[in-house]
Structure formats: C-alpha cells, structure tokens
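Protocol step 4 of 5: obtain the predicted structure for the target chain.
Materials: sequence only (see below). No template structures provided, no constraints applied. The aim of this step is simply to have a reference model before the mutagenesis design in step 5. Sequence pasted as it appears in the construct record:
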Amino acid sequence: MTRDNVPAPVQPPDPSPAQQQPAGAGLTAAIVQGAARSFTARLVDKFLTNPPDWLRALWHALPKLWE
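Step 4 output (structure tokens):
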C-alpha cells in the first residue's frame, strides 16, 4: 500500500451532553443518605447495647455451626 491508499482515521462522534439534574436533586439525595445513616447508627447502637433474646441466641449458636 502506498500512502495515497491509506484510509483516513475515523473520528468517533461527539458524545451527547449529560442530562442535567434538577437543582435540588443533590441536596435531596444527601438528606436521604444522612437520614439512612442516622437510622442505621441508632439501630446498631440499640442492638449492641441491649440485644434482644433472639439475637443473643443466634449469636451464641453461630460457633456451633462450625463444629
């Protein structure tokens, strides 16, 4: 092949611009995420300080599964 027969490289088309989120979308997501973290933290704290009987029984039964 000579230089004249080499095809020109093909440029990919420009990607379309990303969709813009509404103005409050990021703030709403942050509030929901913060509420979920707070709720999870309260549950973990409650169950670690005073676990219910079924959870305590399950915890003590776990080592028996590997025997």
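Step 4 remarks: The longest helix spans residues 25-49. Helices lie at 25-49, 53-65.
Proceed to step 5.
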